[in-house]
Amino acid sequence: MYMRVVCVLLNTHQIRLQAFLVQPQVQQARDAWLVACRTGMNACISVGKLTEARQLLQDMKQRNIAPDIRVFNILLKGYSRRGGVSAVPGILQEMADAGLKPSAVTYNTLIDTYVTAGQLAQARQTCADAQAAGVAPSQVLLCFKHTDALQ
Fold this sequence. Notes:
- This protein is mainly α.
- 63% of the residues lie in helices and 11% in strands.
- The chain contains 7 helices and 2 strands, in the order ββααααααα.
């Protein structure tokens, strides 16, 4: 069985996804797609192409490749960098629909997103949610809590 694996070609003007035919074992092919899509999403985000990053997630779903928490964290990072706080609930819902729970990276990205957007109440709530979920505080959480305590 042949399966297409995506290779991301990036230059300063465009991102092009190039598919190559390979014949690995099924699980290896799925893993290769997952890594290729993560890499492609990071490349898209680095040049501000959030729509293309989202398209890679849709491509994964169409190929029955289950996205992992890192895929969603990459998307959150991209929207955070571009001030797309309005996209956060949808990404979190997709993550929940995939049966995934937020990680420390997820919570830290969310807190950074909300603080950058000036939504301190939402950042405080996310910090509380992380603690309630048993996620150990990271430097971002501790920094936010320290800064918040000063206000």
